[in-house]
Amino acid sequence: MADVELEIVDLSTGQSIGKFPLTLCTPATYEIDIGSYRFTATYLKTGQRLEEDRIIVEGVNAPLTFEFTAVHTLRIESTPITVSVKLNGASIGNTPQTLNVEEGTYIVEVPTEAEA
Amino acid sequence: MSLSKELIREIERNLMIGSTINGMKVVSRDKHGTVVHLGGDSFKILHNGKNQNVFGNPLIGDPIFGYETLGTLYVRGIGNTISGSIFTCPENGTAQSVTIGLQNKFAAVYTGKIKSAIYTGVLVGSTPVAITEERTLTLTAYPVWYTFNLLPPTLVSAATAYALVSWGQKIDTTMAGIACDEGAGIDKSVTYNGFPASIDWATNAYVHSIYCTYSVPSKPKGTIAVHAKLAGII
Questions:
Q1: Cβ contact (<8 Å) for B223 and A30?
Q2: Which helix (H) or strand (E) is B12 found in, with range?
Q3: B65: buried, middle or exposed (CB in 10 Å: 19+, 13-18, 0-12)?
Q4: Pick from B208, B204, B203, B187: which is nearest to B67 by CA?
Q5: Are A77 and A52 in a shared domain?
Q6: Residues B182-201: tens digit of each pLDDT
Q7: Could you read off the pLDDT of B75-87 as tens digits, one per residue?
Q8: Which domains does chain B have, with CATH numbers?
Q9: Is A15 inside a domain boundary?
Protein backbone atom coordinates (compact mmCIF):
# COMPACT_ATOMS: atom_id res chain seq x y z
CA MET A 1 0.00 0.00 0.00
CA ALA A 2 1.31 3.44 -0.90
CA ASP A 3 2.58 5.74 1.81
CA VAL A 4 2.70 8.83 -0.36
CA GLU A 5 0.71 10.15 -3.29
CA LEU A 6 2.74 12.11 -5.81
CA GLU A 7 1.01 14.45 -8.27
CA ILE A 8 2.88 16.00 -11.16
CA VAL A 9 1.37 19.12 -12.76
CA ASP A 10 2.60 20.64 -16.02
CA LEU A 11 3.05 24.31 -15.15
CA SER A 12 2.78 25.41 -18.78
CA THR A 13 -0.77 24.05 -19.09
CA GLY A 14 -1.89 23.69 -15.48
CA GLN A 15 -2.85 20.10 -16.32
CA SER A 16 -2.05 17.21 -14.02
CA ILE A 17 -0.15 14.52 -15.83
CA GLY A 18 -1.03 12.01 -13.17
CA LYS A 19 -1.08 10.88 -9.56
CA PHE A 20 1.37 8.18 -8.61
CA PRO A 21 1.72 6.02 -5.48
CA LEU A 22 5.05 6.16 -3.69
CA THR A 23 6.45 4.01 -0.92
CA LEU A 24 8.63 5.57 1.75
CA CYS A 25 12.34 5.00 1.21
CA THR A 26 11.70 3.46 -2.23
CA PRO A 27 12.69 5.90 -4.99
CA ALA A 28 10.61 5.87 -8.18
CA THR A 29 11.80 7.20 -11.52
CA TYR A 30 9.53 9.05 -13.94
CA GLU A 31 10.10 9.82 -17.61
CA ILE A 32 8.31 12.98 -18.70
CA ASP A 33 8.46 15.56 -21.48
CA ILE A 34 10.93 18.35 -20.87
CA GLY A 35 9.30 21.41 -19.28
CA SER A 36 8.33 22.93 -15.95
CA TYR A 37 6.44 20.85 -13.43
CA ARG A 38 5.15 21.08 -9.87
CA PHE A 39 5.69 17.93 -7.84
CA THR A 40 3.32 17.63 -4.89
CA ALA A 41 3.76 14.78 -2.43
CA THR A 42 1.13 13.98 0.19
CA TYR A 43 2.00 11.74 3.15
CA LEU A 44 -1.22 9.74 3.38
CA LYS A 45 -0.85 8.90 7.06
CA THR A 46 -0.94 12.51 8.16
CA GLY A 47 -2.05 14.50 5.13
CA GLN A 48 1.19 16.50 5.21
CA ARG A 49 1.81 18.02 1.75
CA LEU A 50 5.15 19.07 0.36
CA GLU A 51 5.73 20.56 -3.08
CA GLU A 52 8.59 21.59 -5.28
CA ASP A 53 8.78 23.10 -8.78
CA ARG A 54 11.34 21.66 -11.14
CA ILE A 55 12.43 22.33 -14.71
CA ILE A 56 12.92 18.95 -16.35
CA VAL A 57 15.70 18.92 -18.91
CA GLU A 58 16.50 16.24 -21.43
CA GLY A 59 18.25 13.25 -19.95
CA VAL A 60 18.76 12.44 -16.30
CA ASN A 61 17.71 15.15 -13.81
CA ALA A 62 18.84 15.65 -10.24
CA PRO A 63 16.76 13.52 -7.87
CA LEU A 64 13.97 15.07 -5.86
CA THR A 65 13.57 14.19 -2.18
CA PHE A 66 10.53 14.89 -0.03
CA GLU A 67 11.20 14.64 3.70
CA PHE A 68 8.09 14.27 5.82
CA THR A 69 7.81 14.74 9.54
CA ALA A 70 7.97 11.38 11.26
CA VAL A 71 4.88 10.48 13.27
CA HIS A 72 4.13 7.75 15.76
CA THR A 73 0.95 6.39 17.22
CA LEU A 74 0.35 7.15 20.91
CA ARG A 75 -2.38 4.99 22.45
CA ILE A 76 -3.69 5.85 25.92
CA GLU A 77 -6.01 3.39 27.67
CA SER A 78 -7.20 3.06 31.25
CA THR A 79 -8.70 0.29 33.30
CA PRO A 80 -11.01 -0.36 35.06
CA ILE A 81 -12.69 2.99 34.28
CA THR A 82 -12.59 5.74 31.71
CA VAL A 83 -10.71 8.81 32.83
CA SER A 84 -9.91 12.22 31.37
CA VAL A 85 -6.44 12.68 29.92
CA LYS A 86 -4.10 15.64 29.54
CA LEU A 87 -1.28 15.72 27.02
CA ASN A 88 1.43 18.26 27.83
CA GLY A 89 -1.04 19.96 30.15
CA ALA A 90 -3.89 20.22 27.64
CA SER A 91 -7.06 18.20 28.04
CA ILE A 92 -7.59 15.86 25.11
CA GLY A 93 -10.75 14.05 26.31
CA ASN A 94 -11.39 10.71 27.90
CA THR A 95 -9.68 7.38 27.42
CA PRO A 96 -9.23 5.56 25.17
CA GLN A 97 -7.28 7.93 22.90
CA THR A 98 -5.25 7.22 19.77
CA LEU A 99 -3.07 10.06 18.60
CA ASN A 100 -0.55 10.59 15.81
CA VAL A 101 2.36 12.47 17.30
CA GLU A 102 5.72 13.60 16.07
CA GLU A 103 8.82 12.07 17.53
CA GLY A 104 9.57 13.70 20.90
CA THR A 105 8.88 13.68 24.64
CA TYR A 106 5.30 14.03 25.93
CA ILE A 107 3.76 14.30 29.40
CA VAL A 108 0.60 12.22 29.74
CA GLU A 109 -1.48 13.04 32.83
CA VAL A 110 -4.33 10.92 34.17
CA PRO A 111 -6.18 11.35 37.51
CA THR A 112 -5.06 9.39 40.50
CA GLU A 113 -7.38 6.76 41.83
CA ALA A 114 -8.60 9.21 44.49
CA GLU A 115 -9.24 11.95 41.89
CA ALA A 116 -11.00 9.62 39.52
CA MET B 1 -22.75 0.78 -36.66
CA SER B 2 -24.07 0.45 -33.12
CA LEU B 3 -23.58 -2.63 -31.01
CA SER B 4 -25.81 -3.62 -28.12
CA LYS B 5 -24.16 -4.66 -24.88
CA GLU B 6 -25.70 -8.11 -25.30
CA LEU B 7 -24.21 -8.49 -28.77
CA ILE B 8 -20.79 -7.32 -27.57
CA ARG B 9 -20.86 -9.88 -24.75
CA GLU B 10 -21.97 -12.58 -27.19
CA ILE B 11 -19.04 -11.75 -29.48
CA GLU B 12 -16.59 -11.59 -26.59
CA ARG B 13 -17.65 -14.86 -24.98
CA ASN B 14 -18.81 -17.17 -27.68
CA LEU B 15 -17.56 -16.27 -31.14
CA MET B 16 -14.43 -17.95 -32.40
CA ILE B 17 -11.76 -16.01 -34.24
CA GLY B 18 -12.66 -15.94 -37.92
CA SER B 19 -16.39 -16.23 -37.34
CA THR B 20 -18.81 -13.60 -38.59
CA ILE B 21 -21.90 -12.05 -37.05
CA ASN B 22 -24.03 -9.24 -38.48
CA GLY B 23 -21.41 -8.64 -41.15
CA MET B 24 -18.64 -8.26 -38.56
CA LYS B 25 -15.71 -10.65 -38.48
CA VAL B 26 -13.87 -11.50 -35.26
CA VAL B 27 -10.19 -11.05 -36.12
CA SER B 28 -8.34 -11.34 -32.81
CA ARG B 29 -8.77 -11.67 -29.09
CA ASP B 30 -6.40 -11.13 -26.19
CA LYS B 31 -6.49 -9.77 -22.65
CA HIS B 32 -7.03 -6.25 -24.00
CA GLY B 33 -10.19 -7.15 -25.86
CA THR B 34 -11.73 -8.63 -28.97
CA VAL B 35 -11.16 -6.92 -32.31
CA VAL B 36 -13.93 -7.10 -34.90
CA HIS B 37 -13.65 -5.96 -38.51
CA LEU B 38 -16.64 -3.98 -39.68
CA GLY B 39 -15.60 -3.78 -43.33
CA GLY B 40 -13.32 -1.43 -45.20
CA ASP B 41 -10.66 -0.19 -42.81
CA SER B 42 -13.03 0.02 -39.83
CA PHE B 43 -12.58 -1.98 -36.66
CA LYS B 44 -13.93 -1.97 -33.13
CA ILE B 45 -12.29 -3.16 -29.95
CA LEU B 46 -14.71 -4.83 -27.56
CA HIS B 47 -13.82 -5.28 -23.92
CA ASN B 48 -15.93 -6.30 -20.93
CA GLY B 49 -19.19 -5.59 -22.69
CA LYS B 50 -18.13 -2.15 -23.86
CA ASN B 51 -17.39 -0.81 -27.31
CA GLN B 52 -13.99 0.58 -26.49
CA ASN B 53 -12.70 2.07 -29.66
CA VAL B 54 -13.28 2.69 -33.33
CA PHE B 55 -10.49 3.38 -35.73
CA GLY B 56 -9.43 3.27 -39.31
CA ASN B 57 -6.05 2.29 -40.61
CA PRO B 58 -4.13 5.15 -38.96
CA LEU B 59 -2.03 4.38 -35.95
CA ILE B 60 -4.14 4.56 -32.82
CA GLY B 61 -3.37 7.69 -30.92
CA ASP B 62 -2.16 9.79 -33.83
CA PRO B 63 -3.95 13.14 -33.90
CA ILE B 64 -6.40 14.02 -36.62
CA PHE B 65 -8.27 16.98 -38.00
CA GLY B 66 -11.47 16.84 -40.01
CA TYR B 67 -14.91 15.34 -39.46
CA GLU B 68 -14.45 12.01 -37.72
CA THR B 69 -18.12 11.05 -37.64
CA LEU B 70 -19.62 8.74 -40.21
CA GLY B 71 -22.40 10.93 -41.56
CA THR B 72 -25.86 9.48 -41.60
CA LEU B 73 -27.92 12.25 -43.21
CA TYR B 74 -26.62 12.43 -46.78
CA VAL B 75 -24.49 10.57 -49.32
CA ARG B 76 -22.72 12.80 -51.82
CA GLY B 77 -21.56 11.26 -55.06
CA ILE B 78 -17.88 11.64 -55.84
CA GLY B 79 -17.96 10.11 -59.33
CA ASN B 80 -16.21 12.68 -61.52
CA THR B 81 -16.70 15.19 -58.72
CA ILE B 82 -14.02 16.26 -56.26
CA SER B 83 -15.83 16.70 -53.00
CA GLY B 84 -14.90 17.41 -49.39
CA SER B 85 -14.79 20.01 -46.65
CA ILE B 86 -12.37 22.62 -45.33
CA PHE B 87 -10.89 22.10 -41.85
CA THR B 88 -8.25 23.82 -39.77
CA CYS B 89 -5.19 21.89 -38.68
CA PRO B 90 -4.60 22.55 -34.96
CA GLU B 91 -0.83 22.06 -34.81
CA ASN B 92 2.29 21.60 -36.85
CA GLY B 93 2.77 18.05 -38.00
CA THR B 94 3.23 15.67 -40.87
CA ALA B 95 0.05 14.56 -42.62
CA GLN B 96 0.19 10.80 -43.08
CA SER B 97 -3.17 9.81 -44.53
CA VAL B 98 -6.72 10.81 -45.31
CA THR B 99 -9.61 8.64 -44.14
CA ILE B 100 -12.99 8.82 -45.83
CA GLY B 101 -16.43 7.40 -45.03
CA LEU B 102 -17.44 5.75 -48.31
CA GLN B 103 -20.39 3.77 -49.59
CA ASN B 104 -22.31 3.17 -52.79
CA LYS B 105 -24.03 6.32 -54.00
CA PHE B 106 -26.73 4.33 -55.78
CA ALA B 107 -28.25 0.89 -55.31
CA ALA B 108 -25.75 -0.75 -57.67
CA VAL B 109 -22.43 -1.82 -56.13
CA TYR B 110 -19.52 0.43 -57.08
CA THR B 111 -16.13 -1.08 -57.81
CA GLY B 112 -13.66 1.49 -59.04
CA LYS B 113 -10.82 3.84 -58.36
CA ILE B 114 -10.89 6.41 -55.59
CA LYS B 115 -8.24 8.77 -54.32
CA SER B 116 -7.95 11.74 -52.03
CA ALA B 117 -5.99 14.95 -51.69
CA ILE B 118 -5.31 17.85 -49.40
CA TYR B 119 -5.73 21.24 -51.02
CA THR B 120 -5.14 24.69 -49.62
CA GLY B 121 -8.22 25.82 -47.71
CA VAL B 122 -9.29 28.68 -49.94
CA LEU B 123 -12.32 28.77 -52.22
CA VAL B 124 -10.58 30.41 -55.17
CA GLY B 125 -7.27 29.25 -56.57
CA SER B 126 -7.01 26.27 -54.20
CA THR B 127 -3.89 24.23 -54.96
CA PRO B 128 -2.79 20.70 -54.03
CA VAL B 129 -0.77 20.28 -50.84
CA ALA B 130 -0.54 16.49 -50.91
CA ILE B 131 -2.10 13.64 -52.87
CA THR B 132 -2.90 10.14 -51.69
CA GLU B 133 -2.49 6.75 -53.22
CA GLU B 134 -5.25 5.54 -55.51
CA ARG B 135 -7.23 2.55 -54.30
CA THR B 136 -9.64 0.30 -56.17
CA LEU B 137 -12.51 -0.41 -53.83
CA THR B 138 -15.75 -2.31 -53.82
CA LEU B 139 -18.15 -0.43 -51.62
CA THR B 140 -21.15 -1.44 -49.57
CA ALA B 141 -24.60 0.00 -48.96
CA TYR B 142 -23.53 1.52 -45.66
CA PRO B 143 -20.56 3.82 -44.98
CA VAL B 144 -17.28 2.49 -43.65
CA TRP B 145 -13.94 4.22 -43.22
CA TYR B 146 -11.25 3.79 -45.86
CA THR B 147 -7.77 5.19 -45.39
CA PHE B 148 -5.61 6.58 -48.19
CA ASN B 149 -1.93 7.08 -47.50
CA LEU B 150 -0.37 10.33 -48.61
CA LEU B 151 2.45 9.96 -51.10
CA PRO B 152 4.62 11.26 -49.62
CA PRO B 153 3.65 12.35 -46.08
CA THR B 154 3.56 16.15 -46.11
CA LEU B 155 4.04 18.91 -43.56
CA VAL B 156 0.89 20.65 -42.34
CA SER B 157 0.83 23.80 -40.25
CA ALA B 158 -0.98 24.93 -37.13
CA ALA B 159 -4.03 27.18 -37.50
CA THR B 160 -4.03 26.66 -41.25
CA ALA B 161 -7.10 25.70 -43.27
CA TYR B 162 -6.93 22.72 -45.59
CA ALA B 163 -9.49 21.24 -47.97
CA LEU B 164 -9.75 17.48 -47.53
CA VAL B 165 -11.28 16.03 -50.67
CA SER B 166 -12.16 12.71 -52.27
CA TRP B 167 -12.60 11.80 -55.90
CA GLY B 168 -13.71 8.72 -57.78
CA GLN B 169 -14.60 7.32 -61.14
CA LYS B 170 -18.11 7.17 -62.51
CA ILE B 171 -18.63 3.73 -63.98
CA ASP B 172 -21.85 3.21 -65.91
CA THR B 173 -24.60 3.80 -63.37
CA THR B 174 -22.45 3.23 -60.31
CA MET B 175 -20.65 5.78 -58.25
CA ALA B 176 -18.92 6.06 -54.90
CA GLY B 177 -20.54 8.25 -52.30
CA ILE B 178 -19.11 9.99 -49.26
CA ALA B 179 -21.12 10.08 -46.04
CA CYS B 180 -22.17 13.58 -44.98
CA ASP B 181 -24.06 15.49 -42.34
CA GLU B 182 -25.35 19.06 -42.36
CA GLY B 183 -22.52 21.55 -42.41
CA ALA B 184 -20.15 23.14 -44.89
CA GLY B 185 -18.57 21.51 -47.88
CA ILE B 186 -16.97 22.13 -51.24
CA ASP B 187 -17.07 20.39 -54.60
CA LYS B 188 -15.95 20.67 -58.17
CA SER B 189 -17.18 18.65 -61.13
CA VAL B 190 -14.11 17.25 -62.90
CA THR B 191 -13.70 14.03 -64.91
CA TYR B 192 -11.58 11.58 -62.90
CA ASN B 193 -7.93 11.99 -63.82
CA GLY B 194 -4.94 13.68 -62.23
CA PHE B 195 -5.79 16.24 -59.54
CA PRO B 196 -6.05 19.74 -61.05
CA ALA B 197 -3.26 22.22 -60.31
CA SER B 198 -5.80 24.84 -59.21
CA ILE B 199 -9.49 24.69 -58.33
CA ASP B 200 -12.17 27.28 -57.67
CA TRP B 201 -14.53 25.46 -55.33
CA ALA B 202 -18.31 25.62 -55.28
CA THR B 203 -19.75 25.50 -51.78
CA ASN B 204 -22.47 23.25 -50.42
CA ALA B 205 -24.23 22.59 -47.10
CA TYR B 206 -22.69 19.22 -46.28
CA VAL B 207 -19.88 18.44 -43.91
CA HIS B 208 -18.09 15.44 -45.35
CA SER B 209 -16.94 12.42 -43.34
CA ILE B 210 -13.26 12.86 -44.05
CA TYR B 211 -10.30 13.46 -41.81
CA CYS B 212 -6.55 13.72 -41.99
CA THR B 213 -4.27 11.78 -39.68
CA TYR B 214 -1.00 13.49 -38.93
CA SER B 215 1.98 12.83 -36.71
CA VAL B 216 3.80 15.24 -34.46
CA PRO B 217 7.40 14.84 -33.40
CA SER B 218 7.70 13.51 -29.90
CA LYS B 219 9.17 15.90 -27.36
CA PRO B 220 12.51 15.09 -25.80
CA LYS B 221 12.10 13.55 -22.38
CA GLY B 222 13.88 13.72 -19.09
CA THR B 223 13.93 11.31 -16.18
CA ILE B 224 13.74 12.23 -12.51
CA ALA B 225 13.93 10.02 -9.46
CA VAL B 226 11.57 10.98 -6.64
CA HIS B 227 12.31 9.85 -3.11
CA ALA B 228 9.99 10.18 -0.12
CA LYS B 229 11.25 9.59 3.40
CA LEU B 230 10.63 10.49 7.02
CA ALA B 231 12.83 13.04 8.78
CA GLY B 232 15.76 11.46 10.51
CA ILE B 233 15.41 8.22 8.59
CA ILE B 234 17.69 7.49 5.67
A1: yes
A2: helix B5-14
A3: buried
A4: B208
A5: no
A6: 999 999 999 999 999 999 99
A7: 999 999 999 999 9
A8: 5-55 (no CATH), 64-215 (2.60.120)
A9: yes
